[in-house]
Amino acid sequence: MKQQTEPLTDAALISRVKQGDERAFTALVKRYEQTVWGFAFKLCRDKEKAEESFQDTFINVYRKIGQFDARAKFSTWLYTIVANNCLMHRRKRKLDGLMESYDEAPDPENESVQKQLAAWDDSPIHTVMNKELRARMDEAIQELPDEYRVVFVLRDLEDRTAEETAKILKLSVPAVKSRLRRSRIFLRHKLHDLMAA
Amino acid sequence: MKRTQPHTKIHVHTLSCGKVYEHLCENMDAKLDSASCRRIKAHIKGCTNCSALLDSLKKTVFLYKKYPAPKLPSRSRHKLFAVIKLDGQKKSSAR
Q1: Looking at beta carbons, which residues of chain B come within 8 Å of A134?
Q2: What is the 3-state secondary structure (H, E, C) of chain A?
Q3: pLDDT tens-digit profile of B3-38?
Q4: Going from the N-terminus, what domains does chain A have, and what CATH number goes with each?
């Protein structure tokens, strides 16, 4: 009977790559390509830029694998490289000018904004996820400054912990939490008129 | 679902929407059971505005999670291996 071989761990693959095993690198790429591509796309919201980031990330991994600390988590290192690549490719926007629009979000203590806090539609997702909503979602997330969007994507879409996100972005945990809070409020505010019941 | 009781009524009444708002999105699904968490949960339960805001924040995240992301184009991997001169189509022993 043919025996099933257990897949190698990341650490074992990386160790082989460090010794020049090209097949191990191929296996590593196949294991993480969808993660890298998905994360790059969610950050860039553009196939061409995500493709560029995908290429740059794995080329960087191939060239710098010798510097990777075997005790660290490989996925954390990968996320760091993708984030740096994506952010580097984008124009650095000044936060100050944009923070004004963040403050458009409603203050729940102000009675005049109670209408804005009306409950959202409870319709099933497939009925509300139409072309208009998708366009609005794209527009809203692209309006988020890079430094905020990357936190939202890592925490809420990639399900990284606040601690891992902080490590990836070299931020403090309170900074991650604050950016996440503002990002969620901002996005929610941008979708509100389409979603209110 | 079992209702979380606040520590005291005074705590619920002294906690403002503004204070709740600050913490609302930090751990939207947290099952933390600290005193402050219980106070926030108790406030939300009794406050239409805060509960609507929390619900819409959860739906915002849910919508983005469900937004379909495109699959990696097959040419991307071939292009990568070509650039770094690897043959990704080789039968790999290191799976």
Answers
A1: 67
A2: CCCCCCCCCHHHHHHHHHCCCHHHHHHHHHHHHHHHHHHHHHHHCCHHHHHHHHHHHHHHHHHHHHHCCCCCCHHHHHHHHHHHHHHHHCCCCCHHHHHHHHCCCCCCCCHHHHHHHCCECCCCHHHHCCHHHHHHHHHHHHHCCHHHHHHHHHHHHCCCCHHHHHHHHCCCHHHHHHHHHHHHHHHHHHHHHHHEC
A3: 444 433 334 445 677 777 767 656 665 555 677 777
A4: 10-89 (1.10.1740.10), 95-195 (1.10.10.10)
